[in-house]
Specification:
Blueprint (H helix, E strand, L loop, with lengths): L6 E6 L2 E8 L2 E8 L2 E10 L2 H19 L14 H13 L5 H14 L1 H4 L9 H12 L4 H20 L33 H9 L10 H11 L3 H5 L6 E2 L4 E4 L2 E3 L2 E3 L8 E4 L2 H14 L18 H14 L8 H12 L4 H8 L4 H8 L7 H12 L11
Antiparallel strand pairs: 1-2, 2-3, 3-4, 5-6, 6-9, 7-8
Length: about 400
Amino acid sequence: MAKKKQSIKYNYSGIKFTIRQRYESWYLDFYFEGKRIRRDTNVPATKDGLIEVKRVLLPEIAASLLDNVIPPYEDKEWTLDDMAEEFWALKKGSKMRKHTLKRNIANYNNHVSPYFGSRVITTLLPMELERWQNNLLEQYKSSSVQKYRSVLYSILDQAVKNDLLQKNPLDKVTAPKVMFDLQYSDEEKPDPFTADEIQTILDNSNIYNRNHYMRNIILLMFASGMRPGEIIALQWSDIDFERKTISITKTRIRGEDGPPKTKASYRTIDMLPLAEEALRDQYEHTKDYEYVFISSKKEPFYSHDVVGVNFQRILKQTGIKERVLYNLRHTYASHMISNGVDIVYVSKQLGHDNPNITLTIYTHFIEEDDEKRLKKIAEIGTKMVTFTKGDS
């Protein structure tokens, strides 16, 4: 099979170049003042040749066409803070969710910049980065250190992509091992409720009758597996009672509707009977509003935090072990799987990228009593081939 020829987009001083591999050399294709210009560079189509095109040839072309040429990035000594600033600027124009970007910037400012921010990136050594990582592991969980490391790695990788570094020095530093029970934030760590606990929670949610949302949010989350941010972002246009579907296309964080957590989180889920019960009851209270759930001020929720606080009050009042609101999602998943619902179906309802993620998270929390297990053995046995007992 022929090797695929490379094509690189490169913006220099406002001129958008396309650098293509043509035969054995690099070939330029760009527009200037509405005219398309194409030319062979006669520079070998190698990695070193590409650097030569970017650092020597493109500045020469720009200088001949423009009055004011922006100096190439390579002409300065880049500190890590310089590179981070460029990296954040690029991410602000990407599809990264605002709260994720804000968290990554905070992680960089708090855990990376104080150590290496003023350093020229070409001077960073793997052993320094390993020592930094080890020091953090003495103070934080390995899952947290992995997040800080990931931010640093992405910034350094941006430098590699722009030929400011030959290699990412973090490639030579082994990432901290993250155990299963540390893969989740405190909010996402699975700790499902029992059926009796859910019943008790629902029975005691009436203390919030004046708001007309707590019982319905709890019941809907338990009956659909939706994330809290997805639920408060629901609008009546997302609900189809006739087809019994719920369209999930957004999540609500800090007063803004944004994209769901992942690409797979864009989904249309089935409206199960309990979910329909919750939504039809809620319709009686908010049918004249755009959003399904609104605050006591008759406005969309700023975030699901207030719902979480009210949920904690219910747990405290009932004496049920305190767990975050997110565990209603985990309860839905574990309840469905333990009752024999197809794992692929559950995975799609949850918005996971694939069923393996669902199994990895939830099989650890599903235990069958002997009665259920023996009944399942008997049912599976009836589906197997039977053999007659011969004489021996």
